[in-house]
Amino acid sequence: EAAVSAAGQAEPVTAGYAEGRAELTRDRRRPSPHAHTDPRLPVIGLRRTDRTFVAVLGNYAMHNLGLGSSCRLISADMDGVAAEYARARLAGKPVSLMTAGAGGNLDPRCISGDTAVMERQARKLGKALVAAARAGRRCPGTLRSALATLRLPLMAMSRRELLAEYGRSIG
User: Fold this and answer.
1) Are the C-beta atoms of residues 79 and 121 closer than 8 Å to each other?
2) Cα-based distances in Å from 42 to 73, 84, 155, 156
3) DSSP state of 139
4) Cα(15)–Cα(7) distance, integer angstroms
5) Dihedral angle at the C-alpha atoms of 52, 54, 60, 62, nearest 10 degrees?
6) pLDDT at 121 over 90
7) Confidence at residue 24, expressed as pLDDT on a 0 to 100 scale
8) Is 54's pLDDT higher than 80?
């Protein structure tokens, strides 16, 4: 229904891009010389001709588990709160999406079963998303899309072959 509705309301938009920053993560492994975080927050915004936003997409490298693994609430967690924060504050009330890409070993600095604690942290991510969306620079050219279907043969393995392959992979 949403896709049909959106297709019926197509309008010209301009794509903009910016890279914001957020310092909300920690490396969940033990401290080591290889510990790292990634503060980059790439953001794409689609703006109408009046400069209001239709949609905003942000991607931040962090596991989306501000409420912790023991929490059994159904929740969009930090990404959901950040996206809703952006929707409420950007002109045009855009569709807003935060994705948790390439999180690796990066957890939120503060993990708590307390929703108020999680929401405080998530609003910081939302503020960074809004700032980057507003600062976005127009992407040159025309946005196009394409679809390709690839047929990939399935290599079925017997249980014996599978266990042998697994044994080779773990050394």
Assistant:
1) no
2) 29, 17, 37, 39
3) P
4) 18
5) 120
6) yes
7) 94
8) yes
Q: How crowded is residue 65: how many other Cβ atoms within 10 Å of its Cβ?
A: 17
Tokens describing residue 126: 């939302």
- pLDDT of residue 127 exceeding 70: yes
Task: Please state the rounded mean pLDDT for residues 139-155.
Answer: 80
Cβ(100)–Cβ(24) below 8 Å: no
Burial of 85 (0-12, 13-18, 19+ CB in 10 A): buried
* Mean pLDDT for the chain overall: 89
| Conformational region of residue 68, where left means phi above 0, alpha means psi within -120 to 50, and beta covers everything else | left
The residues near 107 (Cβ < 8 Å, ≥ 6 apart) are 25, 26, 28, 62, 63, 65
